[in-house]
């Protein structure tokens, strides 16, 4: 089972006409929904509020086949993001985090809620910036997982939410020593390693201990870096509505393809499989950009695409 740890929130999306729409969101939440829509049955390891937004988030997880591992809601309000979309569809964020539901998770609660059968853990985003959940997620990754559990981290760096850059970097460094896959955008790399070329910055992350770095760069080719190797795939061209949730869908798509293929952390050196999974992830992310908000595609929408066709045929799922 894939488990996704982190925050769920509401994106308050301000459109070009000044109208505000409320959309379920949060990097880990979007990743879990992507995995559920792609035909797997993930668990979401995060805290929801008892307010109306929290109930909306819970209903969205249910609809997408995601199990909520921490079912008890709290009275704290739902975490909020204010999102402005520019004329090219790029999203710009502001956050309301303090005293909200997403930060209210202690280590003991995370470990108690972690499914026994977990085979892969995905974590990252704002959950690495809020306390006590940030310290709890760090300890979960570094101390509480079985050695064979595949760990994927998406920092999804939000400078507006990070008050202490050196402390954030130090925490991420500790986490990455136990991480197998890191998914980063060019913007993440620029924040983590200012004034360093993206390729060099990605190589520095690889030196910290992960086996694989996945790097996205908007519509430009996606890259995977392994020790001594690199592979690149083109991103399918689409008509972009907005980019909200695209990176989350990319990570969820890669992990879904990898898990469906019955591959593990021991297989991350297999460059051919990495390339196929990279293409599959790019296709999932591209489709997410064609709709408003974080709305990843369903399995039926990707099963005939090049990155998915041969893999689904191989596991007997091509007719789904």
Q: Structural class from helices and strands? A: alpha/beta
Helix content: 25-40%
Number of helices: 11
* Beta-strand percent range: 15-25%
**How far apart, in Å, are the first and last alpha carbons?**
20 Å
Number of separate domains? 1
CATH fold-level assignment: UDP-N-acetylmuramoyl-L-alanine:D-glutamate ligase
Radius of gyration: 18 Å
Largest sheet properties: 9 strands, mixed
* Counted beta strands: 13
Describe this structure in words.
36% of the residues lie in helices and 21% in strands. By secondary structure, the chain is an alpha/beta fold. It has a single domain, classed as 3-Layer(aba) Sandwich (UDP-N-acetylmuramoyl-L-alanine:D-glutamate ligase), CATH 3.40.1190.20. The strands form 2 sheets. The chain has a 9-stranded mixed β-sheet with strand order 5-4-1-8-9-10-11-12-13, sandwiched between helices. Helix 5 links the parallel strand 9 (150-154) and strand 10. Helix 3 packs across helix 4 and helix 4 (133-143) runs parallel beside helix 5 (165-176). The longest helix is centred in the last third of the chain and has 18 residues, at 271-288. It starts with a strand and ends in a 6-residue tail after the last helix. The model is unreliable at 316-320 (pLDDT under 50).
Question: Brief description of this entry?
Answer:
This protein has 320 residues and is an alpha/beta fold.
Please outline the helices and strands.
Layout (H helix, E strand, L loop, with lengths): L1 E4 L3 E6 L5 E6 L1 H11 L5 E3 L6 H12 L3 E2 L10 E7 L5 E6 L10 H7 L6 E5 L8 H11 L6 E5 L10 H12 L4 E5 H7 L5 H10 L4 E6 L2 E7 L2 E5 L12 H15 L10 H18 L10 H4 L3 H9 L6
